[in-house]
Amino acid sequence: MEENNVISFPRLNAPAPCFDAKTTHGQKKLSDYKGKWVVLFSHPADFTPVCTTEFMAFAKKTPDFNAINTEVIGLSIDSVYSHIAWVENIRQNFGVEIPFPIIADLDMKVAKAYGMVHPEASDTSAVRAVFVIDPEGILRAMVYYPLTNGRSIDEIYRIVNSLQTSQKYGVATPENWHPGDKVIVPPPATQQGAKTRKSEGYDYVDWYFSKKSL
Q1: pLDDT digit string, tens, across residues 58-93
Q2: Which sequence positions are flagged as catalytic?
Q3: Measuring CA to CA, how many Å separate 19 from each of 32, 45, 105, 137?
C-alpha cells in the first residue's frame, strides 16, 4: 500500500489532531475551543438526504449541547460555497437554521487526520464519524457509521453527558445512562477493598458491582 493511502486513526485519551480550517463561520482552529467540549462530526456530502436529516437534528439539539458547555462542528469534503448553499437550501426547504460551523475539507487534510476516509466505503467521501473532544483537547469518544445509515443525535448528546459525569465524579455509567440515573462505583483494586465494599453504603450487588446516586 502506498504511503499516502495509509489511513491514520486518532486514539482515545490522546490529544485530538489539531486543525486550522476554513468553515462557514470563518477560519477555525481546534485550539479556539479550549475550555469547551467539542462534537466534531463528518458527513459524506452536501445536498444528500440522510445528511440533511442529521444536520437538522444537530441544529435542533445545538442549544442542549451548548447548555452543557459543548460546541458542534460539522465537516465534509466539499467547498465552503457548497456548504453555504446547502445551509441556505435547508433553511428554505425545511425552515431550519444551521447554527454551527461546517469545515470545508477539500484537501481532505482534517478527514485523513481523523481517519474519516475509509476507501472500502468511499475514497472521495468521509464516512459518518463522530468525535467527542474534552476541554483540554483530549479525544474521549469516537463512533463510525456507514454511509447509508443516519446517526441518533440524542445518543451523541447522551455520550457527552456520560463522559462529563465520569470525568467530574470519577465514576462509570451503565448501559443507556441518563442524568439522574445511578452511576457505577469503580470496583476496589485490592482484596481488602473487596471484603469491605459491602459495608460502604452503596447499592451493593457484589464486590465488583455497586451503584450510587449522585
Answers
A1: 999 999 999 999 999 999 989 999 999 999 999 999
A2: 51
A3: 10, 20, 11, 11
Would you say residue 165 lies in a domain? no
> Does 156 reside within a domain?
no
Distance (Å, rounded) from C-alpha 22 to C-alpha 24?
7
**Co-location of 109 and 191 in the same domain:** no
Range of the domain at 181: 170-214
Number of domains in the chain: 2
20-39 residue pLDDT tens = 999 999 999 999 999 999 99
Q: Which three three-digit cell numbers place residue 57?
A: 437534528
Q: Which helix (H) or strand (E) holds 162?
A: helix 153-169
* CA dihedral of 71, 14, 153, 186, whole degrees rounded to 10: -110
Residue 119: helix, strand or coil by DSSP?
Answer: coil
Q: Report the CATH number at residue 124.
A: 3.40.30.10
146 and 177 share one domain:
no
